[in-house]
Design brief:
Layout lengths: L8 H9 L4 E6 L2 E10 L8 E8 L11 E4 L13 E6 L2 E6 L16 H15 L2
Length: about 130
């Protein structure tokens, strides 16, 4: 697994505790975290995916936004998922989930991190289920 930049120590400890392979890459000037074998809730076209997070330059003060999946996900029910778009990262076709924190659930510097954002991504996945 590539480690082209370091995450804060707490993030690395949390990611290692998940027992999932992960890597960090830099593409152009953008830093990406890939979490492999990310568990997708039952009801989707795939059980596991790579979850990619764009790590902003001023992270952890600046929030992580959205999540990107490879392979593309669809619902087994056939229900359409809104606000998706394709994005090539590291030569792979990812599916961008345009989901954002709200005023009721803002980014909290010093409290939120990679692992809390992955939990947020799981909640976004669950909300789409019929």
């Amino acid at each position: 697994m590539r480690r082209q930049f370091k995450l804060p120590e707490g993030d690395e400890i949390c990611l290692d505790a998940l027992c999932l392979p992960w890597e960090t890459i830099v593409e152009g000037s953008v830093q990406w975290l890939f979490v492999h074998n990310f568990k997708i809730p039952v009801g989707y076209s795939h059980e596991l995916a790579i979850a990619a997070l764009r790590i902003p330059p001023n992270y952890p003060v600046e929030q992580i936004d959205m999540v990107y999946f490879d392979p593309h996900l669809s619902l087994k029910s056939g229900k359409r998922i809104n606000a998706l778009s394709p994005l090539v990262i590291d030569g792979r076709q990812f599916q961008q989930w345009s989901r954002h924190r709200t005023a009721q659930n803002p980014w909290r510097p010093g409290e939120d991190d990679v692992c809390s954002h992955l939990l947020q991504a799981t909640s976004w996945l669950k909300r789409e289920l019929p």
